[in-house]
Amino acid sequence: MAKAKKNKSSRKVDLANRMPLKLNPGRLDPETSDEAINVLIVGVGGQGVIMVSKVLAQICQNLGLQVKQSEVHGMAKRGGVVFSHVRFGKTVWSPTIPMGKADVLIALEWAEGLRWMNYLRPATGIFITDTKRIVPPFACRSRILGADIGYSKNTPDDVIGKVAEAFAIDATDMAAKAGNELAANTLLLGALSTTLTFSNEVWREVIAQMVPPKTIEVNLKVFDQGQKWIEGSRKGEPVEGSAFVPLVQPEEYPMRTTLSITEEWCKGCDICIKMCPERCLTLNKDQVVELADPEKCTGCHICEWLCPDFAISLNPALNPPSNPKVQEAVA
Amino acid sequence: MNKHVIPQAEEPLKQNNHQDNHLENIRDFEIQDYLRLDLFPHFMCPGCGHGIALRALLWAIHIQGIDKNKLAIVSGIGCSGRVGTYIDANTYHTTHGRPLAFATGLKMARPDLHVVVITGDGDCLAIGGNHLIHAARRNLDITCIMLNNEIYGMTGGQVSPTTPHDRFTTTTPAGNIEPVFDASRLAEAAGAGFVGREVTIHVPRLRDLISEGLDYKGFSFIEVMSDCTEINGRKNDLGSSSEMVLGQTRNMRPNEYDNNVVDHPFRPNSLNTGVFVKSDRPEYGASYRDMVDGIQKKQKGH
Question: What are the chain B neighbours of A317 within 8 Å (beta carbons)?
Fold first, then answer.
């Protein structure tokens, strides 16, 4: 942030030599709009949410605008949030964006984008998202194969009609093909640049300052790709990297293990019954263990390992799924 | 007694490519291959942790790929001494407290055998305490598995060297006032090359620890924290077998994060688990044979 402070002090001197802001008419222009322009950046952490907002805030500072940025970098993978609010314009008072007031929403992860969509302005909001999916652990609570996926099953088609403009880019894949998967956030910056009036030179200069020196080349490359992607898709040209593979929900999956119990060996100590995470074992009237709920058994082996009498044996006989879709997903 | 045949899986399992290797290894192990099935069900009480320890031992033997004909199990007297009976290998049931002495002789005479000693807390620390310290001192290539259930279970629940403070036993009706023996630290101080401790509830960890001990060339001492539900647990109101097994997770702390935990277990004998010692001290059998070779060469030269 030392650089930012330096720029702040020399702001008035630089202003005269700067390029005019109104290069791209029809875009969000902080000079003409009375209200501040709000950009909300969300992700799951570790993808460069903060870097995107820093680049944007730095550009605004360089151009002599007022800018306020506030962030929460918790752990979205554990149920928390990772977002960064950037507000800039002639005058900015509050550092946070109210619900329904964001002009642009940039999501670095698909479900996070959907989660924050209500922050966009209903009529004019622009939604730019990476289609990369990072499934959090709490979305897979059920341990049974074929259990319902807790992750969003929405596709980009579901977003159409809910926002003014929406772009779902497979940015991570495109950045990986360009040479560095981590540059996906710069690709989205390129996409963002098409919605604002700042000139390309300003963007490229600040990105080159912010990213690690070794990755400047690839970052600038994907920045151009992001710009071209949006411009191409606005014109209706076929664009690469828009493929969205819907999640396959395994519909029917047969129990993959069979539990065989040697009744003569069981002494009814109930270790397996209490230790079973699915609570699918029980003692029968002869004080011998039996599998009460075969549907629940996931084949975790805990009962087998903890049986002091070797009475439980798990036969991991996997019945191949009949559904070809599921077969594909499993393979 | 009938032989109980467990139905085997119908399909060969290696066709399922999506399962990782770890699962393949689990399936590879069939405990029935290592048991004397005509002796089953075994004599141990319901919920006895010795059975779980036996599974971990056999699994470790399977992982190490030890031939059953080259495996010698030596056991003493007590509940732990009877555990060896059920292993389908060369088993050697010896006198009270002396399995390590017998095993020393066996290993010296037959260095090609894998010698595993199964002993208990009373067998190893009280009656056989002297043999333990000298076996550890010599560092002969023996794997000693001490099943510590904190009581003399077979003889009716007398106090043992590892019975925690204030526990009621048949010989301490008003509570135990003797200090507790830390067997792993004893073995370490006596010079054992490999020392580790694990609880029975963590079967894979126990398996890996025993496997590491079997692999170690030298005296490996492994203390298994077992539970005696029927005698120790009932007398001291420690709960059902499942509660006692679960209690191990509350009371034990893995050695590797010992200095990094806030809550130390509120228990008289709260203990660490994991590998404590793994040194490269010279192995006694190898040193002995080197010495013999040297003397024989000298004599031939003269």
Answer: 9-11, 13
